[in-house]
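Chain A, query sequence.
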Amino acid sequence: MKKLAHIALVCLLLAACQRHQEVPPPTWSTETATDGSFDLSEIEMSGELIALTLTGPDTYYDYHGGHLGVHYLMCLDFAQHLGVRLRMEACRDTAELLQRLDAGDADLGVLSFQSDSLSPGWRIGSNKPELAEALAAWYRPTMLAEAKAKEHQMLTQPRVRRHIYAPMLSKGVISHYDGYFKQYAKRIGWDWRLIAAQCYQESTFDPQAKSWAGATGLMQIMPTTADHLGLPRDQLTNPEQNIAAATRYLKELEQAFSYIRDRQERQNMVLASYNGGANHVRDAMRLAERDRRNPQRWQDVKPYILRLSQPEYYNDTLVRYGYMRGSETADYVDKIRQRYDKYRRTVR
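Chain A, predicted structure.
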């Protein structure tokens, strides 16, 4: 996107509110105008609204292959209102966000300020009076509360729609898919029972399981990940093809952590990455190393996975990928390990 200079700086102040509570309307301010234009009509023609923000629990963060954050949801609603897709990018800090917005790298910026109540500010990019007008027409005072309620529902309802099957089919048999686990685990040198334990954590052995983010099948593979792995999307619910693709992904992640000598510790980092993303795991490893912990040992890294939900950690200069809901990833690895230990004791 070509760089543009500011014609207007438009601040939309949304006060934190309970549902249906009245808040002040948006307020506007302007600055000196210069040349250049990429307004609403061009945005609609390109089919993409570009928004900049800071990572955080209220703004924007990765979550199980999708994105969440109250202001991400609001931006997504605004983009859908305009009939375009949303591209949201996280900046390191406010200075970078404002610099990029001033340079014309985005259409709007979303900031969240700390005060007695949450008072986020949305800033329109340069030379966009039509976009500013569309934003003002779209805005309703109850939107912040509605977005909070929507996110709360997404986080509290079951993440995966699935039938619940027993973790053991019968004595000596874990599931209907043991043959596939054995076949494809052998290709990557993993114990098939460990992959079976992971599969139960992902889908409870339901090949039709699907998450709200779009992850599908026994091993909960995202459509974009399926594309990367060469798995046709219409085969996501095929048990064998889903397991085969998942093991390819596990092998890919294991290669990314090949410098970890201990196989079990390397597998722990792989499992954490499968759930929470390798970039977040590496952030936690850097923090552990800084504090003279062993960055290649799960029990030393797990506390930092958990702390990546705290501002003093996800805003640390060592952290490159920001906020993470680490409690779910820590729990994911621990539960798989616990179930794997049971499988090893009961299944040969």
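The chain has 14 helices and nine strands. The beta strands are 11-13, 48-54, 61-63, 66-68, 85-91, 108-111, 121-124, 160-161, 210-211.
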